Amino acid sequence: MQIINTKIDSVDVKLSLENLVIINNSLNEICYGIDMDESEISIRVGAELGDIDNLLKEISHIIEKLEAGKGKADEWSDYLAKCPSSFIQKILGQAENYNTPLTINY
Question: Tens of pLDDT along 46-79?
Fold first, then answer.
C-alpha cells in the first residue's frame, strides 16, 4: 500500500488488483466462512456484519470492473469512500504492492 494523500477526513491510497482480491477474500471469510455470531464478529473486527458485507460487495464490484477492464480509478474511489474507515484502515495497513488509487473517508 502506498499513501498518496492524507486529509482530515480521507486518505488516498494505491492498491494492486492482487491486494484487492486479498481484501475481498478476507471479507468473504468473515461474512460467510467463519462460524461466529454477529456480535462476536462486531467485537473482533470493529464493524457490523452488514457493513462488512456491503464493503465486500463494493470491493467485489471493483474487482469485476478491473478484471473486465471497464472501470475508472475515480469511480472505484467513490465505492470505498462509503466504507467503514476503521475497518478498511486495519486491512489496508497490511497491504503492499499497489496500483489502484482508492479514497477512504473517516
Answer: 999 999 999 999 999 989 888 877 555 556 666 6
Half-sphere exposure of 71 (CA within 13 A, CB side): 22
C-alpha cell at 94: 497490511
Domain boundaries, the chain: 2-105
Q: Is residue 105 exposed (0-12), middle (13-18) or buried (19+ Cβ within 10 Å)?
A: middle
Return d(Cα 10, Cα 21) in angstroms, integer: 22
| Residues whose CB is less than 8 angstroms from the CB of residue 90 and which lie 6 or more positions away in sequence, other chains included | 46
**Lookup: cell for 74:** 475515480
